[in-house]
């Protein structure tokens, strides 16, 4: 990122995208946010792209990226944070419309925006992309399309890193654990998820904050990460490290102080 750079954040009106856009704008970056349900981020210097932007629409993404560059200049950094959660179902009850929706937005959408912006960055020999995957793409769960889509995002990240490595474009992913966004809070409020059950497997026994994911994304976009491409960085409060301890009787409590 540089003074004359432009960061594009998809899904920027809410959750992890909003936290990332806010952090980067607070650090002096020029940040444009796009969303299928666009809403400005009050109290920030982020620039809202007012037209609805659907990451799953090939024509919409190609036209949208061209229009954004025409209006605001070359995109130098991209954060693919738009996404939808997986619906929890038993295998027999997975509806294929739901499957297609999750794969279309979470995987196809990530590809479409990365391709559109990345080709332009590669021609200019400069750019950085961070895709928001999930620990769900590194483990398993009763969210069949979502886990597959997120594993696809992690794989796609490596492929695009190799594709554009010689063109000066870095591509990395972050994999958040359960993160306290409005989307997750809604899942808790509906009774589909339970806060303590989500936190317990994590080594740190808590949810991740959206700003913690934003900090990792900002690092991967920054010159401090100039030698890093093709990686997937979990930001999960130790969810991956702690999950298997249940089989051995659970994680230890801290010693009395
Ligand atoms: N919150 C978590 O626990 C968690 C954990 C791991 C990964 N993630 C991933 O992080 C990303 C952001 O999740 P979040 O929790 O911030 O959710 P969120 O619902 O708070 O934010 C997602 C944003 O994406 C937008 N969006 C949805 N479909 C879109 C589309 N087709 N085109 C453009 N924008 C669209 C929504 O309007 C919303 O503003 C998602 O990819 C999600 O899978 C979240």
List the helices and strands and how they pair.
Layout: E1 7-10, H1 15-26, E2 31-34, E3 47-48, H2 58-72, E4 77-80, H3 96-124, E5 127-132, H4 144-164, E6 169-176, H5 182-189, H6 195-199, H7 210-221, E7 232-235, H8 239-242
The structure holds nicotinamide-adenine-dinucleotide (NAD).
Low-pLDDT segments, ≥5 res: none
Taking all residues together, what is the mean pLDDT? 97
- SSE class: alpha/beta
Number of helices: 8
- The tally of structural domains comes to 1
Describe what this molecule looks like in 3D.
The chain has a seven-stranded parallel beta sheet, with helices on both faces. It contains eight helices and seven strands. It has a single domain, classed as Rossmann fold (3-Layer(aba) Sandwich), CATH 3.40.50. The chain is α/β, with parallel strands linked by helices and about 260 residues long. The site of nicotinamide-adenine-dinucleotide has 30 residues, from helix 1, helix 3 and helix 5.
Keywords:
single chain, binds nicotinamide-adenine-dinucleotide, 257 residues, Rossmann fold, 7 strands, alpha/beta, 41% helix, 7-stranded parallel β-sheet
Précis, in short:
The protein is α/β, with parallel strands linked by helices and 257 residues long. The chain has one domain (7-178, 210-232): NAD(P)-binding Rossmann-like Domain (Rossmann fold, 3-Layer(aba) Sandwich), CATH 3.40.50.720.
